[in-house]
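Appendix B. Raw example, untouched.
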Amino acid sequence: MKKTTLYYVVDIILFVLLTAIAFIGILMGFFIPKGPTANEADKYLWQLHRHQWGNIHLYLSLAFITFFIIHIILHWSWIKGKTRKLFGKIWVVVFILILPALLIFSLWYLYPKNSEAYREYGRKYGQGYRQINTANYIKISGQMTLYDIQEKTGIPAKKIIDRLGLPKDIPLTERLGKLRKEYSFSMQKIRNVIHALIEEEGEK
């Protein structure tokens, strides 16, 4: 592959990754609710939870960093030459490379520490994840099915269906995210039901 073609491919990939990262960042910042005061059901967009969008954002960011490093390596000779021409000192390049770390540190330093506005974030709905003990911990997501929960917890799916007031012939292999929208129950409600059923089993 010619160098110019390689440069072009890397730059296109960087553009695509950066656009995707920015798009998801805007979704999470302005369109997907966050915090314990928001309805858990509203934290889904296109059948993906806010945390799942965050995971995709992380993976895209890691890919972007990888290709950005490749981009720097491919253009290193040009960067050094241009730096010497403009500043006469090669150490300027090193300073530019550590600027992101300095920017992150500056924002961390200036941002309010232990802000009361964020102290309760996640606590309310985090309680719904707790089971009898850490050995029985299970995270319930919209991607799971009633059959998955039955397998992981040992709680019969029939009992969960009864507690949620769902039709008895409901398919056990349907994803919770889809069932939640069809039958208007929140993910937090299903977590509470499972937690209560596990506690009842433990008391027997």
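End of appendix B.
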